Amino acid sequence: MTRFRLVLLIIPVLAMMLFVVGCASDDSSSDDTSSDSTTTASSCSPEDLDTFKDGVLTIATDSPAYPPYFEDDDPTNGKGFEGALGYAIAEQLGFNRSEVEWAVVPFNVSFAPGEKKFDFDLNQISITPKRAENVDFSTPYYTASQGVMVAKGSELDGITSLDQLQDATIGVQIGTTAYEAVEDQIDPENDPKVFDNSNDVVTAFKQDQVDAIVVDLPQAIYLRDAGEVTNAVVAGQFDAPGGDEWGALLGKDSSLTSCVDEAISALEEDGTLAEITKQWMSESAQAPELQ
Hints:
The protein is of the alpha/beta class. The chain contains nine helices and twelve strands. It has helices at 3-42, 81-93, 107-110, 129-132, 177-186, 198-206, 217-225, 257-269, 272-283, and strands at 57-61, 100-104, 120-121, 135-137, 142-143, 146-151, 170-173, 193-195, 212-216, 232-238, 245-246, 249-251. The longest helix has 40 residues, at 3-42.
């Protein structure tokens, strides 16, 4: 047999071998993908989660726990924005209420370096690059709206729309989201009065230098409920780009982070998160949405 004829015989054989190997490789890849998919799908089940306590989901927050984030200083009752959210996340992860425990962790301690004695923390914690150096944050569950504070019994008490602020003199802190929100969304006839810091904004309101002030909604609620500003109401709230984002806080590189992300995303997709936010950050907080 000549070398030329031998080569002609070998080529079909090699082609057939490569085809068989290629098919085997494709099948193997398909099996691996299927296996990975199955593992990922089940990895957020309670039995697969590496929680602080076996079979228990430990959620942390500070004490006292104030409304509208918690009610009656008792996270276990599931009332308040973050109280309700904590149990909603737990349910998404497959834990029932009896399998949830609440731990007390001071605000500043929560994002300090070191081991965490909880699975995640809900405590109005803004997501910042500095904090993220030491801890993980979930996908945001809340973006702070802007709150409008006015004097109780004034002409602005009871407004329902931003248009009703057109003639008002509004106080804001310069360089803040609130300042940009007033300029872009209210665009009052009178230029807003700007102040160097939030204390000056509040002082101006107390001294009747302005008709209203615009600050982050959580700050407005605090000023009203903590008695920092007496005889005042939160006339309402409105959305504005750039507000502080809150996330569930977890230990650095926690194996639970992706699962908590999935849980919050699911609550957002099915409307549960919006319902909780409306109930506790609008209706219960007495901060109606201004159109």
